[in-house]
Amino acid sequence: MDVPGFLPGAEQEWNGIIRRGAKLLYAYAEASVPMVTLITRKAYGGAYIVMGSKYIGADINLAWPSAEIAVMGAQGAVNILYRKEISEAKNPEKARAELITEYNETLANPYLAAERGFIDAVIEPNQSREYITKAFRTLKTKRDTLPPRKHGNIPL
């Protein structure tokens, strides 16, 4: 997975981002097959939640050490969270750069997500095939059953 998030804005809304996102969320939530997610780069905000997170029932979540898992990217988050501190700094660009580095190191890393149970393992890229194969072997007998009903209520 490499998902930088849903782009905010009126244009995206007019083009149906909410409707399409709801359909994707519905499909993942209704899936009864094994779900294994590998985060290779960015996993931000609602887009991450919709695309194979533990929140919607992914069975096994893995991440590379370089993965960034957060509500939003460091640059945008720092600009919002530390607007006042940056504007009052003697050197705003240096302050922004330091805060971005701190955000990435302390908040947007896979180790924090693993510590909190959102990621099952942080693996090296060269271990990906091995871990994914093991995950599917582990899940080969998975039998998820959904409640009986005539049809779902897909958001259109």
TrEMBL record:
- Give the InterPro entries listed for this entry: AccD/PCCB (IPR051047), AcCoA_carboxyl_beta (IPR034733), ClpP/crotonase-like_dom_sf (IPR029045), COA_CT_C (IPR011763)
Entry GO MF terms:
propionyl-CoA carboxylase activity
Domain named CoA carboxyltransferase C-terminal: residues: 1-138
**One Pfam family cited in the UniProt record for this chain:** Carboxyl_trans
Quote a single Gene Ontology cellular component term. acetyl-CoA carboxylase complex
What protein name does the entry list?
Answer: Unannotated protein
Q: Which organism is it from?
A: freshwater metagenome
